[in-house]
Amino acid sequence: MDPQRHITVDEALPEGQGLAVAAAAAGHVNGHRPAAMRAEAFHAASERILTSINTVIDGKADAAKLALTVLLAQGHLLLEDVPGVGKTLLAKTLARTIDCSVSRIQFTPDLLPSDVTGVSIYNQASRLFEFRPGAVFANIVIGDEINRASAKTQSALLECMEEHQVTVDGDSYHLDEPFMVVATQNPIEMEGTYPLPEAQRDRFMARISMGYPDKDSEIEMLETHQATSPLANVSAVVTAADVAAMITTVQQVYVSQAVKEYTVAIGRATRESALLRLGASPRSLLQLLRAAKATAALEGRDFVLPDDVMGIAESVLAHRIILDRKAAGTGENPHSVIRGILAKIPVEQNVALSSARLAGQRGLDPGQTLRNPS
Amino acid sequence: MTMTPHRADTSAPALVLSPTDPGQGASRRVGPYPWAMAAAVAVAVSGAAMSLNGVLGGWAWYMPAVTTVIVVVTAMALLRRVRAQPLLVAAGGFISLILILTFTFFRRNSIAGFIPSGETTDMLGQYVRRATETVLAESAPVAPNVGIVLVTCAVLGLVVILVDALAVPLGMPATSGLGLIAVLVVPAMIKPQSVGLLAFIITAVGYLMIVGCSQWFSANRLQLGAGRNPGQFKRAAMTGGVALLATLLLQPLIPGFDRGTFPQGSRLNPWGSSSGLNPLISLGNSLRSPTGEGRITYASTATSPLYLRLVTVDRFDGETWAPDNRDDTRRGGVARLDPGHEINATDTTRSITSINTGQFTSPYLPVPYAPAGVNGLDGSWSWDPSTLSIKGVDANSHSQQYVVVSAMPTLTADLLARSSARVRGISDDFIRPPEGVPDIVRTTADTITRESNTSYSKALAIQRYLRSAEFTYSLESPVQGGYDGDGLSVLADFLAQKSGFCIHYASAMAIMARLEGIPSRIAVGYAPGRPTGKTVSLAGQGALPEYEVDARDAHAWPELYFEGLGWVPFEPTPSRGFLPAYATESSASGGASTNQNNDDLIPSGAASGAPLPSTAPVPLPGGGAGGVAGSQLLPVLYGALGILLLGLLLASPRLIRSGLRSRRLRPGSVASDDTALQSWAELRDLAIDYGVPPRPSETPRHFSARLRRSGALGEEDGRDGAAHRAVNSLVQDFERREYGRPLRAQAALEGSRPGGTPASIAAARIELIIAALRANARRLVKFRASWLPPAVMNRWQSTLGTPFRAVSRHVAAWRRAAARTLIRTRDGLRRVREG
């Protein structure tokens, strides 16, 4: 492989997309780590993003906040719901509020992996192979109806998601930071589709079900969104560099031993639960804690509370666990199981507290209690 | 008591995520642990076994016992060293116990010297029968025969396994003391000097070693060490103090502790004043008691010092003598008593005695012999025609005041010497010599009476022998020599050692007299007492000097029967009581002067009415004023003490709760960075008290939100807004302390509060919250929170339940382990069969 080609690739890229080769360490924009943002600036930036999303999508503040949380936690988001509730709109709005590159892939059964990742083309003028970056080379990638693509195309995207890099013809190309995939999926009309297998669902940090808006929001939507596309009014409120700095801030959020233990307790409880065939993976716990850090930062704290973990756990874990057949038969669903588990895990407080000791005794052996949920 | 903190720490929250079984912990990090534990158990059990000296005679049995203990302990340590399952370790202990017992006791009747065979079982049955006979027939100290030593060794081995099982796999080292107490309780009950200091100290050291080992090698020692707090020594001292106080205060309140079938407890009772159904048993203890208890006062017209007699013992068979009540021949009504045998004497000495028993409690009535009539008693009483002992039917001697008329033939040496007629008309019980009299008694009796020909001279010879300089009066030497008590073997020991107290002298004389053909019995009661300095006015008799006796005057003396004269008391005990004129030999140098101790106390001329200063004639039979005052004061004292204790008990939850609160909030009592934790704990407890208990799966934030929503704090935007804000601040401080960055959290906490120390701010917040809670709670809830705070009560409940929970948990674990082993064995067998 000659060094010439790399230079060519760099030149061929659109400006503002510093495509780095594998030598550059992951997590760094253009080779240096962005400085963390101050708390006030962080708060203001996040407020701006959320406000502009909420002007577009009525009554979905929670979903918007979760989407931002996932972005700041460097995860990927899976939006799953029936058609027409604003999945794509949410993804596009989020992308628009940030001044960064966005690409959108509409997944179809005939979409090829190279359409996603890019392809090397022989340039007759320069008589060299040139790498044409695919749609995935963007800060925010919106993958619409991901379950309609064939398995190999999905796989190609999933490699990018996990490793933040693209490998074509043996050469690896790093993706920009921040990098986030927002995929949407339609749970009905499953004929002729390729639903994401568990292993691939595991790569999404969180899954959001949008749900229908409530009555007032729906009426307001009918009024405001009648004439123009709401997206037209949205302009970028933060830059990509701001987002990178926010991500660095999130990474510096402190996690105490107690919170780590609580997180691990949740993971172990899902694995030991009799209701579940598959519990949470270690990766999911890692992502759970990252999401919790982002939540804490969004609330203006520099340390994680068990509340943060508890609040985000359902979104992060529900799509990764698989119910036991019997449990599914009794009307349980992943969300209810996770809620049940959270309700049983004691939140341990300092050993010095004698009253906490009592609580600890009562809640001893979480595995055992969870095996027989009430 | 020491157990509680350990259990609580084992189940401390930090460990919930990785619950560690102490047994697993032990096997994970073996090293010196099994050996240290084995040594501790061996020391403790061997020490406890030492206390059995005195229950078993001598020390010969100790070697096999220690060997057994060491072998069992070593076997279990070895198994634990190779990381065997706890169940297997216990099983190994059992097997090693069987092997060592076989090796020690059945070497000839077993396979290869240590494997039990059918023959061993036969021998075992034989030994166990022998041990049973020993237990039933002999009194302590028993001769260490094979049977009893075998049983002792087996029990000690089982105790080792029990102690080990409690300390290691069950993880309750403090409870292992139960096994040691099981051993110690035997000498405590049987031996008059109880366990013995050395044995107790060694046992205690061993026990502390067990507790220390399990703490030191505990799998989670680091966490325990981190949790050590500075108040633990103070708490330990307080626990010890409370235990000591409870021991002293509670035992007089427990009914039956010092009387009835368990009179040994009376040794502990500093205020007690009773003797059980068998006065012989408590005689030695009464004599040794440092304080005079059971004070009886009396005044009498009798010219000679007065013996108060309670009861007689006339059957000397078996190892323990007891009064024979003859319930079927007793007669009711004690106004007139009839001796039931013929009295030919011409002169009769009559005397009138007024007695006040005060606190003395016994079913028998102390009366001077021979009572002819008793007046002034409460309750109904019965008397035995053959012994004239008076026993209550539905009454006892407590607080009785009565007048006894006694009649005795006027005895002279001359009269007694002439009474040589054959004995007629009394029960064979008093004549028949006991079976199985030791040879030494018989030969001694024959030797000393060789030159005597009449009953009287024989009696005098025996008395002279016992009062000779060869014998010394000692309360302690029978205890040290192991022959305290009564019984024929004790008598043999006494004659060999020539040292003992009244019961030994009395029984020696009574039995020797019977061997020589003189009917005899032992009278139990009180020797003549001391004048109190007061006088008692007795109707028709004028003022009489008052005397008192108490437990230290308890006495036993022989009564010998002379035909035509009746029962005649003798005094073989040197330096005690009073030697009557008829029993004094004219040639003997002894006489009344031998009892030097009592000489000055005995009212030698009392009947003449020593003109003691008399204040006013006390009404009949008016006891000592001090005694009455004392007996009235005591119940009042007890009552006051009881009410005080009850009040303290009722108030204790409140006191503990407020003590806890002030300790948490006192500035400077805790490290400043702990203020957030302490005030948070207080907030949780307050919520528990007012009916909003935190749930284990709740985060601080959820909990506080629920507390504020519950209405216990009142309206948020009303006048209780400050309390709501206080709760929020406490939650934030706690979150920062508990989950925040360690260093910065502290700095932020201290930096952001210029208006006071963190502790005072927290205290002020808690005050606000308490005020709001009280203002919004219903009356019942308020009362409960003040006097029976659930925060304290729940903790007590859980502490009380801890042992039960632990046991049930371990039982379940063992059952699972047993099931697993069974399945594995079955599978293994199946594989072997198939393959």
Explain what this protein looks like in three dimensions.
The complex is a heterodimer of chains A (374) and B (835). The longest helix of chain A has 18 residues. The radius of gyration of chain A is 22 Å and the shape is globular. Chain A has 2 domains: 221 residues, 3-Layer(aba) Sandwich (Rossmann fold), CATH 3.40.50.300; 119 residues, Helicase, Ruva Protein, domain 3, CATH 1.10.8. In chain A, the strands form 5 sheets. Chain A has a 5-stranded parallel β-sheet. A two-stranded parallel sheet of chain A has the order 2-11. Chain A has a two-stranded antiparallel ribbon with strand order 4-5. Chain A starts with a helix and ends with a helix. In chain A, 46% of the residues lie in helices and 14% in strands. With 374 residues, chain A is of the alpha/beta class. Chain B is an alpha+beta fold and 835 residues long. Chain B folds into 4 domains: 199 residues, no CATH class; 341 residues, C8orf32 fold, CATH 3.10.620.30; 133 residues, Four Helix Bundle (Hemerythrin (Met), subunit A); 44 residues. In chain B, 50% of the residues lie in helices and 10% in strands. Chain B is built from 27 helices and 16 strands. In chain B, the strands form 4 sheets. In chain B, strands 6-9-4-1-14-13 form a 6-stranded antiparallel β-sheet, with no helix packed on it. Chain B has a 5-stranded antiparallel β-sheet with strand order 5-2-12-15-16. In chain B, helix 6 crosses helix 7 and helix 15 runs antiparallel to helix 18. The chains are: A alpha/beta (374), B alpha+beta (835). The interface between A and B is large, with 40 and 41 residues.
